[in-house]
Structure formats: C-alpha cells, structure tokens
Amino acid sequence: MRILLVEDDRMIAEGVRKALRTDGFAVDWVQDGEAALTAVGGEPYDLMLLDLGLPKRDGLDVLKSLRARGNAVPVLIVTARDAVADRVKGLDAGADDYLVKPFDLDELGARMRALIRRHVGRGESLVRHGGLTLDPVGHQVTLDGAPIALSAREFALLEALMARPGAVLSKSQLEEKIYGWGEEIGSNTVEVYIHSLRKKLGADLIRNVRGLGYMVAKDA
Ligand code: CA
Fold first, then answer.
1. Does 115 lie in the same domain as 16?
2. CA 8 vs CA 13, 91, 167: distances in Å
3. Distance 59 CA to ligand 1 centre (A)
4. How far is the CA of 39 from the centre of ligand 1 (A)?
5. DSSP per-residue codes, 161-179
6. Which candidate in 10, 51, 135, 208 could, as Cys together with 140 as Cys, close a disulfide (CB 3.0–4.6 Å)?
7. Domain check: are 31 and 55 in the same one?
8. PTM 4-aspartylphosphate: at which residues (predicted)?
9. Which of 53, 90, 94 is nearest to 71 (CA)?
10. How many angstroms is it from 71 CA to the middle of ligand 1?
11. For residue 105, what are the domain limits?
C-alpha cells in the first residue's frame, strides 16, 4: 500500500516513515502543502497522512482543494492541534479520521489499515482466497490454517494482488505498492518476490498474464 506522508517536522516524519516501512507500507514524504497537492495529482495513493500546520498551504486548505477536485483518497489528519474546533473543521473538510500528536505508532498503523479497508469496501479485516487468509491488521498469512512467514515486501505485494482478485497489476503498479520515493528498486525484484511467494503459497495462486503483469484469479 502506498502512502503520502505530509509533515514538515523532520523528526516526526522520519519516525513515522521508518515505522510504516517496517510495517510494509511504501511511503512518500513531502514537507509542505503545495508539494502535497502536486504529489496526489501524480500518484495513486491508498491513503494520505496529513499534518495541519504546514508551510505554503496549511493542511485544511490542502484537504479542501483535494476534495474540490473530486479526489477521494482516504485522509487521516495527524496534528498537534487538539482543539475540538480544529477536529470538527478537519472532518467537515473531508478528512476520514483524526489522530492527535503525540500518538502511538501501532495505533496509527491500525487506523490507517481500517481507513483503507473501509475505502475499498471491505468491512471484514481478513482477506480470503481459497485456503489462503491474509490479515492486514495482524500482518499474518495462513494457508489451510498454517501460518506462512512472509517478508514485509512479500506481504505488501500479496496484499495488493489479493485486494483485487481478477485484476491484472503491472510490474510498475506492483513496484508502486511496495516502494516509496528514493528507495532503490532492483531490475527484477518484483519477479523475485513473486517467485518466493509462489514457493511459499503454491505455484497456482499468482498468475502471470503475459506482457501485462500478475493477478490472483477471481475464483479460488
Ligand atoms: Ca506541522
């Protein structure tokens, strides 16, 4: 899942980015409101983490422009402003949820996953496909009830494919799900992760659609 982090406090941003990457999110980081609007215009994000007090354009302004353009990306406001009035303004301007600094990084991850789930219309947290179950909250995968150990990136890749059974995702779409800006991408890493997932989960789960990309079939 690809996240846009909008935060001008370098220390907070570094901490959040590190924690989310460990959690398997691909994180792009911008430090002001204008950069945030430019970034969301160019990339399909699964969620935006938005600070309110920002240089150039403040968070509320960013949020209003975003919704005025019809962009429905889930937005989680993360801010030091804990006044009720600010919270209400944020939600009224189209934010999906609200977290007040300082916050717990585990709570942040859990709320993000809940928003993303709601956005794609899955109330239930577990994603199932045949004997395979993926738990986005607990970051666990089981096959016929037995736990399967996956790396953070293998998990992110599998999650992207299982979120839309029957949809073909290209190699670059998959790379977007697992890498943030500035992260080194090797020439064949998606293939390597797919190969590893097939070894762990069976050769039939992830299909190669020649010249187009990869998919998990609709019928399990
Ligand atoms: Ca700030």
1. yes
2. 7, 21, 36
3. 9
4. 18
5. HHHSTT--B-HHHHHHHH-
6. 135
7. yes
8. 51
9. 94
10. 23
11. 2-120
Identify the bridge partners of residue 79 per DSSP, sorted by sequence position. Answer: 100
Residue 124's pLDDT is 62
Length of the chain: 220
Tell me the pLDDT tens digit for each residue of 114-135: 888 787 765 567 888 888 999 8
C-alpha of residue 53 to centroid of ligand 1, in Å:
4
Q: Which of 120, 139, 160 is the last residue of a domain?
A: 120
pLDDT in tens, 154-210: 998 999 999 888 899 999 889 888 887 777 777 778 899 999 999 999 988 999 998
112 and 170 together in one domain = no
> Both 15 and 69 in a single domain?
yes
Question: How many independent structural domains does the chain possess?
Answer: 2
Domain end position, chosen among 78, 96, 120: 120
pLDDT at 217 over 90: no
